[in-house]
Amino acid sequence: MTITKAACVGRPRGFDIDIALEQALNVFWRNGYEGTSLNELTEAMGIKKPSLYAAFGNKEQLFFKAIDLYENRPDSLFNIAFQHEHIADVIRGLLLGAAAQFTDCSHPQGCALINSTLSCSEASDSIKKTVLERKLKHKQQLADRFEQAKCKGELQDDCEPVVLASLMTTLFQGLSMQASEGASVEELQQVAAMAAEGILTVCVKR
Amino acid sequence: MTITKAACVGRPRGFDIDIALEQALNVFWRNGYEGTSLNELTEAMGIKKPSLYAAFGNKEQLFFKAIDLYENRPDSLFNIAFQHEHIADVIRGLLLGAAAQFTDCSHPQGCALINSTLSCSEASDSIKKTVLERKLKHKQQLADRFEQAKCKGELQDDCEPVVLASLMTTLFQGLSMQASEGASVEELQQVAAMAAEGILTVCVKR
DNA sequence: ATTGTTCTGTACCGAACGGTAATATATAGA
DNA sequence: TCTATATATTACCGTTCGGTACAGAACAAT
């Protein structure tokens, strides 16, 4: 899916807009929104500033498009883990999957969405707000999935789906930060495994 | 403990250096290192830039001094929680204490150390490195305390103190982020309670 | 070949950044 | 009162920030 319809008249664009966007995502992923300068972006994307502005609007819109690209990846953590039938497998899949994906060295470490939110002063308020909404949406998806599991009788009676969703979000954010700080895949997997074991023990009927 | 020895000659300083430092800490706490500008600092501290530079060196040194102030607070989370004898109380104290302190509205939300690390591009590398060392030191303190508990037979045999310390760190970082994003004290306490219950169940002998 | 359209590159904008030179001002000691 | 010293104030430095005006270059349609 291209971002801007290819023009059939005029000078043709000299770069692949999808590849450029992916490069931009990588920079935002690594440095966050405010931590990324236009010079870093243009250098990584292999284009000059006016080309960037013509193709993507401005830094803010470029960021949103990059985040869209990130969230629509087919190998998204949620997409994979939610395919499991049993809630225990979902929880294990989410935590161990996060540990694996956040340390996957084929792209920057951690979660792009979580990393981006960080380096944001009061200046870029719309960025903060939008990223927060996305994260809230994901938390809601988790809560919905856990609620569904509870209806099926998979969860303990005293386990609140919303709280469990918050706890998972907390763990994701912590795992993402640790990954960004250079934690190894082994360390994060041990952490994820211990967390999963604890959650399964106190929240899931067996 | 003052930062700079009070001069007994020359024009006396027109502001309280300790109060100014505390104001600086609050700004860094709220906005992170790179997210904080000198104008914000001087405004919050009630002084002009040359006074700031005369008293604290530069932005980087001011940050280090502010972080020192933060870590040497008497009501530090670790100081309080480590006073408990039983490891179960330590773990509960750490998690519930974090939920409470991170949402305490008498100061910025979240953990200052964790928040600061975030908004740091490759530029301020020494900041990143120093903050990382501090966080690592805290993780080590946790690991030592858990190791000690294991020696006393308080932990399950298959519970690795280092992994448990990593999991606690992960939870702290997640809780701090959620607090910074505006989570309520109630929500965080529920999350902390659930996490504590899980950890106590799988890691601690009862 | 000309025109219209769109992209590319250079060179620049005002604003904000961290940091400082120069100078005025307030105190202690002589 | 005068001098030495340390602080406060103003006004400025060079750099980088996000963003853009402008002119040239490459294509499709005529």
From TrEMBL, chains A, B:
Superkingdom of the source species: Bacteria
InterPro entries in alphabetical order: Homeodomain-like_sf, HTH_TetR, Tet_transcr_reg_TetR-rel_C_sf, TetR_C
Name of this chain's protein: TetR family transcriptional regulator
The keyword Cell cycle belongs to this UniProt entry's keyword annotation: no
SUPFAM superfamilies: Homeodomain-like (SSF46689), Tetracyclin repressor-like, C-terminal domain (SSF48498)
Residue ranges of every copy of the HTH tetR-type domain listed in the record: 14-74
Keywords: DNA-binding, Transcription, Transcription regulation
PANTHER family for the chain: HTH-TYPE TRANSCRIPTIONAL REGULATOR YJDC, TRANSCRIPTIONAL REGULATORY PROTEIN
Gene responsible for this protein: mexR
Keyword rRNA processing appears in the UniProt entry: no
Regions recorded as binding DNA: 37-56
Organism field: Shewanella ulleungensis
